[in-house]
Amino acid sequence: MSTDFYNYVRGVSDEVPLGYSDNGMRAYRHLVFLGASQLVEASFPELRERLGEASWRELIAAFVRDSRWSSAYYGDMKDAFLEFIERESTREV
């Protein structure tokens, strides 16, 4: 799979890669977002509750888009999320 595919699925780009359908790519993007949301929430249920739905969705979208998560194992997502939060919290505003 191409970098364009991964960039679209993670929300880095909104340009559907050549050879893929718009509907199919939107489904992939949704499934990645949903999977990340569910797995992060399983480790940090109180965070979603405290943030509220809109802020939670923004946080997960930013995590999927900007994190350095590259493992094929969803079990590694908790550590990647913690690294993302730490990196983002120290970033200059």
UniProtKB/TrEMBL annotation:
<dbReference type="Pfam" id="PF09836">
    <property type="entry name" value="DUF2063"/>
</dbReference>
<keyword id="KW-0238">DNA-binding</keyword>
<dbReference type="InterPro" id="IPR018640">
    <property type="entry name" value="DUF2063"/>
</dbReference>
<dbReference type="InterPro" id="IPR044922">
    <property type="entry name" value="DUF2063_N_sf"/>
</dbReference>
<feature type="domain" description="Putative DNA-binding">
    <location>
        <begin position="3"/>
        <end position="85"/>
    </location>
</feature>
<protein>
    <submittedName>
        <fullName>Putative DNA-binding domain-containing protein</fullName>
    </submittedName>
</protein>
<dbReference type="GO" id="GO:0003677">
    <property type="term" value="F:DNA binding"/>
</dbReference>
